[in-house]
Specification:
With about 350 residues, the protein is an alpha+beta fold. It has 3 domains: about 80 residues, no CATH class; about 60 residues, no CATH class; about 140 residues, Glucose Permease (Domain IIA), CATH 2.70.70. The chain is built from 6 helices and 19 strands. Strands 8, 9, 10, 12, 13, 14, 16, 18 and 19 form a 9-stranded mixed β-sheet that branches. Strands 3, 5, 6 and 7 form a 4-stranded antiparallel β-sheet that branches. A 3-stranded antiparallel β-sheet has the order 2-1-4. A hairpin with a 5-residue loop joins strand 12 and strand 13. The radius of gyration is 44 Å and the shape is rod-shaped. It starts with a helix and ends in a 7-residue tail after the last strand. About 5% of the residues have low confidence. The structure holds zinc ion. The site of zinc ion has 5 residues, from loops.
Protein backbone atom coordinates (compact mmCIF):
# COMPACT_ATOMS: atom_id res chain seq x y z
CA UNK A 1 0.00 0.00 0.00
CA UNK A 2 2.83 2.39 0.93
CA UNK A 3 4.68 1.41 -2.23
CA UNK A 4 1.68 2.27 -4.32
CA UNK A 5 1.33 5.67 -2.60
CA UNK A 6 5.00 6.44 -3.19
CA UNK A 7 4.56 5.48 -6.87
CA UNK A 8 1.58 7.86 -7.21
CA UNK A 9 3.49 10.65 -5.52
CA UNK A 10 6.45 10.09 -7.81
CA UNK A 11 4.28 10.20 -10.94
CA UNK A 12 2.47 13.32 -9.57
CA UNK A 13 5.82 15.04 -9.12
CA UNK A 14 6.80 13.97 -12.64
CA UNK A 15 3.55 15.31 -14.07
CA UNK A 16 3.99 18.63 -12.30
CA UNK A 17 7.53 18.90 -13.62
CA UNK A 18 6.39 18.12 -17.17
CA UNK A 19 3.60 20.70 -16.85
CA UNK A 20 5.97 23.38 -15.61
CA UNK A 21 8.39 22.50 -18.43
CA UNK A 22 5.71 22.76 -21.08
CA UNK A 23 4.51 26.02 -19.62
CA UNK A 24 8.01 27.44 -19.70
CA UNK A 25 8.58 26.33 -23.29
CA UNK A 26 5.21 27.80 -24.38
CA UNK A 27 6.06 31.00 -22.55
CA UNK A 28 9.37 31.21 -24.35
CA UNK A 29 7.65 30.55 -27.70
CA UNK A 30 5.04 33.20 -26.91
CA UNK A 31 7.79 35.61 -26.01
CA UNK A 32 9.70 35.22 -29.24
CA UNK A 33 6.81 34.31 -31.54
CA UNK A 34 3.18 35.42 -31.89
CA UNK A 35 0.20 33.60 -33.44
CA UNK A 36 -0.43 34.92 -36.92
CA UNK A 37 -2.73 34.02 -39.81
CA UNK A 38 -1.44 33.44 -43.27
CA UNK A 39 -4.19 34.77 -45.53
CA UNK A 40 -4.84 33.53 -49.04
CA UNK A 41 -7.44 34.61 -51.59
CA UNK A 42 -8.10 32.33 -54.57
CA UNK A 43 -5.03 30.33 -53.52
CA UNK A 44 -2.81 33.41 -53.66
CA UNK A 45 -1.01 34.62 -50.53
CA UNK A 46 -2.16 38.14 -49.84
CA UNK A 47 -0.56 38.75 -46.48
CA UNK A 48 -0.29 37.99 -42.78
CA UNK A 49 -3.02 38.98 -40.43
CA UNK A 50 -2.52 39.86 -36.79
CA UNK A 51 -6.12 40.38 -35.73
CA UNK A 52 -8.26 37.85 -37.53
CA UNK A 53 -11.61 38.60 -35.90
CA UNK A 54 -11.19 42.34 -36.41
CA UNK A 55 -10.30 41.85 -40.08
CA UNK A 56 -13.22 39.46 -40.58
CA UNK A 57 -15.64 41.94 -39.01
CA UNK A 58 -14.34 44.71 -41.28
CA UNK A 59 -14.83 42.54 -44.38
CA UNK A 60 -18.34 41.60 -43.28
CA UNK A 61 -19.20 45.25 -42.74
CA UNK A 62 -17.88 46.03 -46.22
CA UNK A 63 -20.02 43.28 -47.75
CA UNK A 64 -23.10 44.72 -46.09
CA UNK A 65 -22.59 48.41 -46.70
CA UNK A 66 -19.73 48.92 -49.14
CA UNK A 67 -17.17 51.54 -48.24
CA UNK A 68 -19.83 54.18 -47.57
CA UNK A 69 -19.57 55.92 -50.94
CA UNK A 70 -23.35 55.74 -51.51
CA UNK A 71 -26.51 55.34 -49.46
CA UNK A 72 -27.84 53.09 -52.21
CA UNK A 73 -25.37 50.26 -51.69
CA UNK A 74 -27.42 47.09 -51.31
CA UNK A 75 -24.53 44.70 -50.73
CA UNK A 76 -21.09 43.80 -52.01
CA UNK A 77 -20.66 40.47 -53.66
CA UNK A 78 -17.42 38.59 -52.98
CA UNK A 79 -17.02 35.46 -55.08
CA UNK A 80 -14.33 34.00 -52.86
CA UNK A 81 -13.64 34.65 -49.22
CA UNK A 82 -10.10 34.77 -47.83
CA UNK A 83 -8.83 31.67 -46.02
CA UNK A 84 -6.88 31.91 -42.77
CA UNK A 85 -4.12 29.55 -41.76
CA UNK A 86 -2.67 29.73 -38.26
CA UNK A 87 1.12 29.85 -38.24
CA UNK A 88 3.91 31.11 -36.07
CA UNK A 89 6.06 33.93 -37.25
CA UNK A 90 9.06 35.46 -35.58
CA UNK A 91 8.27 38.69 -33.84
CA UNK A 92 9.29 41.65 -35.93
CA UNK A 93 7.75 40.26 -39.14
CA UNK A 94 5.14 42.73 -40.25
CA UNK A 95 1.49 41.90 -40.65
CA UNK A 96 -0.63 43.91 -43.08
CA UNK A 97 -4.29 43.62 -42.11
CA UNK A 98 -5.19 46.87 -43.92
CA UNK A 99 -3.61 45.71 -47.20
CA UNK A 100 -5.37 42.36 -46.91
CA UNK A 101 -8.66 44.22 -46.52
CA UNK A 102 -7.92 46.39 -49.55
CA UNK A 103 -7.08 43.34 -51.68
CA UNK A 104 -10.30 41.61 -50.65
CA UNK A 105 -12.37 44.77 -51.23
CA UNK A 106 -10.86 45.21 -54.71
CA UNK A 107 -12.54 42.00 -55.84
CA UNK A 108 -15.93 42.99 -54.50
CA UNK A 109 -18.79 43.80 -56.86
CA UNK A 110 -21.00 46.53 -55.40
CA UNK A 111 -24.73 46.23 -55.95
CA UNK A 112 -26.90 49.31 -55.64
CA UNK A 113 -30.56 49.26 -54.75
CA UNK A 114 -32.94 51.85 -56.14
CA UNK A 115 -36.38 52.09 -57.73
CA UNK A 116 -37.61 52.38 -61.29
CA UNK A 117 -40.90 53.97 -62.28
CA UNK A 118 -42.50 51.93 -65.04
CA UNK A 119 -45.14 52.99 -67.48
CA UNK A 120 -46.57 50.07 -69.48
CA UNK A 121 -43.66 47.93 -68.21
CA UNK A 122 -41.11 50.38 -69.60
CA UNK A 123 -38.63 52.00 -67.21
CA UNK A 124 -39.18 55.73 -67.41
CA UNK A 125 -37.32 57.16 -64.43
CA UNK A 126 -35.23 56.16 -61.43
CA UNK A 127 -35.41 57.31 -57.84
CA UNK A 128 -33.29 56.60 -54.79
CA UNK A 129 -35.88 55.23 -52.40
CA UNK A 130 -39.32 53.72 -52.20
CA UNK A 131 -41.02 56.70 -50.57
CA UNK A 132 -39.92 58.96 -53.45
CA UNK A 133 -41.37 56.42 -55.89
CA UNK A 134 -44.62 56.47 -53.92
CA UNK A 135 -44.68 60.27 -54.05
CA UNK A 136 -44.59 60.07 -57.85
CA UNK A 137 -47.52 57.65 -57.97
CA UNK A 138 -49.42 59.84 -55.50
CA UNK A 139 -48.58 62.92 -57.60
CA UNK A 140 -50.12 61.28 -60.68
CA UNK A 141 -53.19 60.29 -58.63
CA UNK A 142 -53.56 63.85 -57.34
CA UNK A 143 -53.49 65.16 -60.88
CA UNK A 144 -56.01 62.46 -61.89
CA UNK A 145 -53.67 61.23 -64.59
CA UNK A 146 -55.10 58.71 -67.02
CA UNK A 147 -52.19 56.26 -66.77
CA UNK A 148 -52.17 55.45 -63.03
CA UNK A 149 -53.14 51.83 -63.75
CA UNK A 150 -50.13 51.46 -66.05
CA UNK A 151 -47.61 52.85 -63.55
CA UNK A 152 -45.52 50.45 -61.46
CA UNK A 153 -42.68 50.70 -58.98
CA UNK A 154 -39.85 48.22 -59.50
CA UNK A 155 -37.06 47.50 -57.03
CA UNK A 156 -33.73 47.42 -58.85
CA UNK A 157 -30.41 45.82 -57.92
CA UNK A 158 -27.72 46.97 -60.29
CA UNK A 159 -23.94 47.24 -60.30
CA UNK A 160 -24.18 50.82 -61.45
CA UNK A 161 -26.20 53.68 -60.07
CA UNK A 162 -28.75 55.40 -62.31
CA UNK A 163 -29.35 59.14 -62.53
CA UNK A 164 -32.12 59.96 -60.11
CA UNK A 165 -35.02 62.16 -61.16
CA UNK A 166 -37.07 64.68 -59.19
CA UNK A 167 -40.66 63.87 -58.19
CA UNK A 168 -42.22 66.92 -59.92
CA UNK A 169 -40.24 66.31 -63.11
CA UNK A 170 -41.38 62.66 -63.37
CA UNK A 171 -45.00 63.49 -62.55
CA UNK A 172 -45.01 66.18 -65.26
CA UNK A 173 -43.43 63.82 -67.80
CA UNK A 174 -45.74 60.89 -67.09
CA UNK A 175 -48.98 62.81 -66.62
CA UNK A 176 -51.61 61.92 -69.18
CA UNK A 177 -54.82 63.83 -69.59
CA UNK A 178 -57.99 61.75 -69.52
CA UNK A 179 -59.55 61.68 -72.99
CA UNK A 180 -62.84 63.53 -72.54
CA UNK A 181 -63.48 64.11 -76.28
CA UNK A 182 -65.15 60.74 -76.85
CA UNK A 183 -68.05 61.33 -74.50
CA UNK A 184 -68.38 64.95 -75.63
CA UNK A 185 -68.44 63.84 -79.28
CA UNK A 186 -71.16 61.30 -78.56
CA UNK A 187 -73.32 63.88 -76.87
CA UNK A 188 -72.63 66.40 -79.63
CA UNK A 189 -73.46 63.95 -82.39
CA UNK A 190 -76.73 62.88 -80.78
CA UNK A 191 -77.66 66.47 -80.20
CA UNK A 192 -76.74 67.61 -83.69
CA UNK A 193 -78.49 64.65 -85.34
CA UNK A 194 -81.63 65.73 -83.60
CA UNK A 195 -81.17 69.41 -84.32
CA UNK A 196 -80.26 68.89 -87.97
CA UNK A 197 -83.48 66.90 -88.32
CA UNK A 198 -85.32 69.94 -87.12
CA UNK A 199 -83.20 72.08 -89.50
CA UNK A 200 -82.21 74.52 -86.77
CA UNK A 201 -78.94 75.27 -88.53
CA UNK A 202 -76.67 73.35 -86.19
CA UNK A 203 -74.12 70.91 -87.54
CA UNK A 204 -72.13 67.93 -86.41
CA UNK A 205 -68.39 67.52 -86.14
CA UNK A 206 -68.76 63.94 -84.91
CA UNK A 207 -66.65 61.15 -86.30
CA UNK A 208 -69.76 59.16 -87.27
CA UNK A 209 -69.38 58.03 -90.83
CA UNK A 210 -71.08 55.54 -93.10
CA UNK A 211 -69.50 53.82 -96.07
CA UNK A 212 -72.89 52.99 -97.55
CA UNK A 213 -74.43 55.05 -100.34
CA UNK A 214 -77.72 56.69 -99.53
CA UNK A 215 -79.84 58.66 -101.93
CA UNK A 216 -79.35 62.37 -101.29
CA UNK A 217 -82.29 63.45 -103.41
CA UNK A 218 -80.20 66.35 -104.75
CA UNK A 219 -77.36 66.50 -107.28
CA UNK A 220 -73.97 67.94 -106.35
CA UNK A 221 -71.16 69.50 -108.37
CA UNK A 222 -67.43 69.53 -107.58
CA UNK A 223 -66.69 72.51 -105.30
CA UNK A 224 -63.14 72.62 -106.65
CA UNK A 225 -60.88 70.78 -109.09
CA UNK A 226 -57.59 69.44 -107.81
CA UNK A 227 -55.72 66.39 -106.65
CA UNK A 228 -57.30 64.08 -104.10
CA UNK A 229 -54.77 63.76 -101.29
CA UNK A 230 -56.79 61.91 -98.68
CA UNK A 231 -59.83 59.75 -99.21
CA UNK A 232 -62.91 59.25 -97.10
CA UNK A 233 -62.48 56.78 -94.24
CA UNK A 234 -58.69 56.81 -94.37
CA UNK A 235 -56.66 56.67 -91.19
CA UNK A 236 -53.63 58.91 -90.75
CA UNK A 237 -51.30 60.13 -88.04
CA UNK A 238 -52.71 63.68 -88.18
CA UNK A 239 -56.19 62.43 -87.23
CA UNK A 240 -57.32 60.37 -84.26
CA UNK A 241 -60.17 58.74 -86.19
CA UNK A 242 -61.17 57.83 -89.73
CA UNK A 243 -61.38 60.65 -92.25
CA UNK A 244 -64.91 62.04 -92.44
CA UNK A 245 -64.35 63.83 -95.73
CA UNK A 246 -62.35 64.08 -98.91
CA UNK A 247 -59.21 66.21 -99.21
CA UNK A 248 -58.61 67.97 -102.49
CA UNK A 249 -55.31 69.83 -102.81
CA UNK A 250 -55.38 73.15 -104.64
CA UNK A 251 -53.38 76.33 -104.49
CA UNK A 252 -54.17 78.68 -101.65
CA UNK A 253 -56.79 81.23 -102.54
CA UNK A 254 -58.54 79.06 -105.17
CA UNK A 255 -62.31 79.61 -105.27
CA UNK A 256 -64.50 77.05 -103.46
CA UNK A 257 -67.99 76.71 -104.94
CA UNK A 258 -71.17 75.55 -103.23
CA UNK A 259 -71.85 71.95 -104.30
CA UNK A 260 -75.60 72.63 -104.33
CA UNK A 261 -77.92 75.44 -103.49
CA UNK A 262 -78.90 75.86 -99.85
CA UNK A 263 -78.55 77.96 -96.75
CA UNK A 264 -75.25 78.72 -95.02
CA UNK A 265 -75.66 77.39 -91.49
CA UNK A 266 -72.11 77.97 -90.28
CA UNK A 267 -69.34 80.25 -91.43
CA UNK A 268 -66.45 80.69 -89.06
CA UNK A 269 -63.54 79.03 -87.29
CA UNK A 270 -64.17 75.51 -85.96
CA UNK A 271 -61.24 73.73 -84.27
CA UNK A 272 -59.40 71.30 -86.50
CA UNK A 273 -61.54 72.32 -89.49
CA UNK A 274 -60.02 75.79 -89.36
CA UNK A 275 -62.20 78.26 -91.28
CA UNK A 276 -65.30 76.30 -92.20
CA UNK A 277 -68.47 76.84 -94.21
CA UNK A 278 -71.45 74.52 -93.73
CA UNK A 279 -74.25 74.70 -96.27
CA UNK A 280 -77.54 73.00 -95.43
CA UNK A 281 -79.49 71.66 -98.38
CA UNK A 282 -82.84 69.91 -98.51
CA UNK A 283 -83.47 66.36 -97.20
CA UNK A 284 -81.16 66.89 -94.20
CA UNK A 285 -78.12 67.00 -96.49
CA UNK A 286 -75.22 69.25 -95.53
CA UNK A 287 -71.91 70.02 -97.24
CA UNK A 288 -68.78 71.11 -95.32
CA UNK A 289 -65.87 73.11 -96.68
CA UNK A 290 -62.89 73.17 -94.30
CA UNK A 291 -59.36 74.67 -93.93
CA UNK A 292 -60.42 77.80 -95.86
CA UNK A 293 -58.24 80.90 -95.96
CA UNK A 294 -61.17 83.25 -96.59
CA UNK A 295 -64.93 83.04 -96.05
CA UNK A 296 -67.15 84.91 -98.49
CA UNK A 297 -70.52 84.00 -96.99
CA UNK A 298 -72.11 84.26 -93.56
CA UNK A 299 -74.58 82.14 -91.61
CA UNK A 300 -78.20 82.53 -92.71
CA UNK A 301 -77.28 83.49 -96.24
CA UNK A 302 -78.75 81.47 -99.12
CA UNK A 303 -76.34 80.34 -101.80
CA UNK A 304 -76.86 78.94 -105.28
CA UNK A 305 -75.08 75.92 -106.74
CA UNK A 306 -71.65 76.95 -108.08
CA UNK A 307 -71.48 80.20 -106.12
CA UNK A 308 -68.04 81.00 -104.69
CA UNK A 309 -68.35 80.73 -100.93
CA UNK A 310 -64.72 80.58 -99.67
CA UNK A 311 -61.05 80.37 -100.68
CA UNK A 312 -58.70 77.39 -100.26
CA UNK A 313 -56.36 77.61 -97.30
CA UNK A 314 -54.56 75.56 -94.71
CA UNK A 315 -56.20 76.66 -91.48
CA UNK A 316 -56.91 74.23 -88.61
CA UNK A 317 -55.42 70.74 -88.63
CA UNK A 318 -53.87 70.91 -92.06
CA UNK A 319 -50.41 70.39 -93.47
CA UNK A 320 -50.89 72.29 -96.74
CA UNK A 321 -53.52 74.18 -98.78
CA UNK A 322 -56.47 71.91 -99.54
CA UNK A 323 -60.22 71.73 -99.32
CA UNK A 324 -61.68 69.28 -96.81
CA UNK A 325 -65.08 68.45 -98.30
CA UNK A 326 -67.75 66.57 -96.38
CA UNK A 327 -71.24 65.38 -97.16
CA UNK A 328 -73.42 64.66 -94.16
CA UNK A 329 -76.97 63.43 -93.89
CA UNK A 330 -78.52 63.97 -90.47
CA UNK A 331 -75.03 64.35 -89.02
CA UNK A 332 -73.57 61.15 -90.47
CA UNK A 333 -70.74 61.59 -92.97
CA UNK A 334 -70.94 59.81 -96.34
CA UNK A 335 -68.26 59.25 -98.95
CA UNK A 336 -68.17 62.32 -101.30
CA UNK A 337 -66.73 60.10 -104.03
CA UNK A 338 -70.06 58.26 -104.24
CA UNK A 339 -71.64 61.52 -105.40
CA UNK A 340 -68.91 63.69 -106.93
CA UNK A 341 -65.23 63.18 -107.91
ZN1 LIG B 1 -59.67 66.29 -94.59
Amino acid sequence: MKKILIKIRTSMKFLILVSIGTFLILGLVAFFYKPIYRVTLDGELIGYCAQKSKLQAKIEEYMENGNGESENVAFVQLDTMPTYQLCLLKRGITTNDEQIYQKVAEKGITYYKYYAILEDNEEKAYVSDFSTAEQIVQGLKDKNSDNIDNIQILEKYETELADFAQVEEVVANLYKEKPVEQTVTKVASKKSSRTSNSSSGSFSTSTNLSKSKVSLGISLIKPITGTITSRFGSISSVRSSAHTGLDIAASAGSAIKAAASGTVTFSGYKGSYGYLVVVTHSNGVQTYYGHCSKLYVSAGQTVSQGQTIAAVGSTGNSTGPHLHFEIRVNGVAYNPQNYVY
